[in-house]
Amino acid sequence: MDDSRWNHTLYQTQAINSEGLEGHAYVPDGIKVKTSSPLNDHAGTNPEQLLGMSLSTCLDATLEAIEHERKLPHISAVRVKVAFIGARANYEFLVHAQIKIDGVDSQTAKAMTKEAEERCCVSKLLKNSGNYTVETVTHFDD
């Protein structure tokens, strides 16, 4: 890796999968997850679920920090939907995040959503993909 930022990280981890989609992914000395395709009924977690959990956790943790800065209790929740679309050799994910912030007016909730979207590391990775959207909601879609 030629990027010198690797020399000044706050935290690093690695995830390993050497078994493919129907196998296991793991973090050395950490979590081990059975993996499976979403297109079958085999037990396991799929990449769509892992991406959704990563984004929802990052966005809500970022919102929690924003709430703390505004001297608010933790009042936000995040729901992420991930869809697997396409055809062989041209697959894509569609990712849609809904952010619900109770106890503040609509304008404040939208401003906090925008700030979280700009600060969340996972959101930053996804934002220029063309397949990622975020909205502020008063209730989650079913």
UniProtKB/TrEMBL annotation:
Gene3D superfamilies, sorted: 3.30.300.20
InterPro entries registered for this protein in UniProt: KH_dom-like_a/b (IPR015946), OHR (IPR019953), OsmC/Ohr_fam (IPR003718), OsmC/Ohrsf (IPR036102)
A Pfam entry, by short name: OsmC
GO biological process: response to oxidative stress
SUPFAM superfamilies, per the entry: OsmC-like (SSF82784)
Family: Belongs to the OsmC/Ohr family.
Official protein name in the record: Redox protein, regulator of disulfide bond formation
Source organism per UniProt: Lentilactobacillus diolivorans DSM 14421
Source taxonomy: Bacteria, Bacillati, Bacillota, Bacilli, Lactobacillales
